[in-house]
Amino acid sequence: MEGKANEALAKFPNDGAFRFYRGIALLHQRKTTQALREFQALHDEPKVTVGAMLASIAAHKACQHVDQEEVNDLEFKVKEIRKRANSDELYYAGVFQWLWGRADKAKEYVDRAIKNVNQNLDAVSLRGWLEISLSTSSNLKPEIGRASCRERV
After folding, report:
1. DSSP class of residue 85?
2. Which of 5, 13, 89, 137 minimizes the number of CB atoms within 10 Å of its CB?
3. What's the pTM?
4. Helices marked H in the chain — which ranges?
């Protein structure tokens, strides 16, 4: 994932989404210091603000010495920003939660993103993947995908 994000950043160096994905890749590789630097630079990036702050919280918690004051500050900021977040910000917050293994939390963000902008196709697509992730049966019902699409069209 880091390699693909770096390739994309070579073409689009100012794209916050690709920097966000690179940060997630670094975090998954346990390169928390590098990931934190990447996420902190994105705290004011319009599309990925909420996702970057959530990722920063996760990165801080993954450190040996957790800066609890910074975690608390970020959690407070996320609560405030989340209230007025746009569909893209909610989508990227959902992406982070899903890639961090928290599909239930991701679903909450994605549902709010879809509620804000019914035609956010990225959010609708992610919602379908989340339904699959959250499904407990191995026999996925085709109605899940149809219902998701029916709600959004």
Report:
1. -
2. 137
3. 0.83
4. 2-11, 16-28, 32-40, 49-62, 68-84, 87-99, 103-116, 121-134, 142-152
